[in-house]
Amino acid sequence: MPQQDPSRTxxxxxKRRRKARGEGNVPKxxxxxxxxxxxxxxxxxxxxxxxxxSEMMGLYEHFFRNAVMFEATPQAVYDLLLWISGKLALxxxxxxLFLALVAYVVIRLQVxxxxxxxxxxxxxxxxxxxxGLKRLFISPQTLIRLGKSIxxxxxxxxxxxxxxxxxxxxxxxxxxxxxxxxxxxxxEMGMKMVKYAMLPMLVIAIADLWYTRWDYEENLKxxxxxxxxxxxxxxxxxxxxxxxxxxxxxxxxxxxxxxVPKADVVVTNPTHxxxxxxxxxxxxxxxxxxxxGVDHLAERIKEVAREHRVPIRENVPLARALYxxxxxxxxxxxxxxxxxxxxxxxxxxxxARPQGR
Length: 357
Fold this sequence. Notes:
The protein is mostly helical. The protein folds into 2 domains: 14-232, no CATH class; 240-352, 3-Layer(aba) Sandwich (name from scop), CATH 3.40.1690. The protein is built from 13 helices and 4 strands. A 4-stranded mixed sheet has the order 3-2-1-4, sandwiched between helices. Strand 1 (265-268) and strand 2 (273-278) form a beta hairpin. The chain is elongated and about 135 Å long. The two termini are 83 Å apart.
């Protein structure tokens, strides 16, 4: 069926396909299982027919030999029913199991491994009479299914006609044939009818499989906007992510500014960089960076430092090195010990207590 929305030009994404499979929506041809099960049944009967015939002859012989002596009591009839059921089961069960296995394999090859509990949930929208009638009489899918059914019925009906027409001249001699010969002839004709019907059935099944998969892909197609929206959901909306990143940076900056009054000195570039340091031998064996920033944030750090009378010292290479090499909350590396120690030694606070606070 052609897609109804011409804007749906994009192939379905993996997420869209997973969602469809989770809802039990998979490309599954109805004609392929019918055809292959019919073929499998024909092959099974052809291979197993001698055994079935032998078992049936045994049953007939048993009935003919014991019919006169059989006493039809309730218990005897019940036992006979169980015995016949067991015999029929032994004859037919292997064929039925083989057909079930073929049907399972064909379905599994079509849809793969699938477990969709949502299929069992009741969908009350399907009980809408008006929509149901529209789907039944107006839907193109209904017309396509009707066409397939008519074509399949025609194939199955034409095959016996062709065989019977070609065998008309053999019917009269059957009047003189034995029952066994008549039975063999009927089985052969039945097998020939099946063979005549199987080839067009196989062609129809292959065509239906192709159409089913094509129609499934067409119905799964998405618009460009749907693809973009799904990508945004998977990767995150860039605008939202930018806002979140900005808020996180604002929170981090606020926390750093709250720590600036605890600093012993702020090292500046003097314009672009600002790094707040604190040294307490009890807390850490080396100075720790409490805050750092560039441009606007650097100006805010210096403003807070002035408000709380924290010393500000200009040292261009040291400010740049501290900003690039040390994260907030970390101790300075050994290669910067001497430069930072010289800076701290110039402060009155550390001149009074050179060994710590």
